[in-house]
Design a protein that fits this description.
The chain has 3 helices and 4 strands, in the order H-E-H-E-E-E-H. The protein is α+β, with helices and mostly antiparallel strands and 156 residues long. A 4-stranded mixed beta sheet has the order 2-1-3-4, covered by helices on one side. The longest helix is centred in the N-terminal third of the chain and has 29 residues.
Length: 156
């Protein structure tokens, strides 16, 4: 009986040691509960992806490849644009189709420049300093407006 009791105690201690080792391994390596980096505040932030904010988004290389005969393209930085401009773009309901290009996205960075070139013949020559609204008819830019207030008034 003493051997059975001794073996039972040893087995119990061994099982407890295994459980402690598994807990510590999980706490250290998987959850970071032990030894993980401490944050000063436990705030969680949620961001809305840019893909869900605007309808009719296109990339800058496709600006002249639209199926409509006449359409408009607004080019702006979503990070720097005023709330009024963003609202005007989101709520646009005119008869001419409106496309949106966000120059904050890496794929559209090629059209951002220090000087505007708004009457380019192709997308590689198009350059925008900040904000622009282009009216395109038959693959040619017929009108270009810059400045947030001017774009807002054009979209109304």
């Amino acid at each position: 009986m003493k051997d059975e009791l001794k073996n039972g105690i040893i087995l119990g201690i061994f099982v407890i040691i295994i459980i402690v080792v598994v807990y510590l391994a999980t706490a250290i390596f998987m959850t970071g509960e032990i030894g993980g980096k401490k944050t000063k505040d436990n705030k969680t932030t949620t961001t809305v992806p840019l893909t869900n904010q605007y309808n009719n988004r296109i990339i800058s290389s496709k600006i002249f490849n639209r199926s409509e005969e006449s359409y408009m393209v607004v080019i702006f930085s979503d990070k720097k644009a005023s709330n009024e401009l963003k609202d005007s773009v989101k709520n646009y309901n005119g008869s001419v189709k409106l496309y949106v290009i966000n120059i904050d996205e890496a794929i559209n960075k090629s059209i951002k420049a220090d000087v505007d070139n708004l009457y380019a013949q192709d997308s590689s020559g198009l350059k925008v300093k900040e904000n622009a609204l282009l009216t395109i008819k038959d693959g040619v830019i017929t009108n270009a407006v810059t400045g947030g207030a001017n774009i807002i008034s054009e979209l109304k």
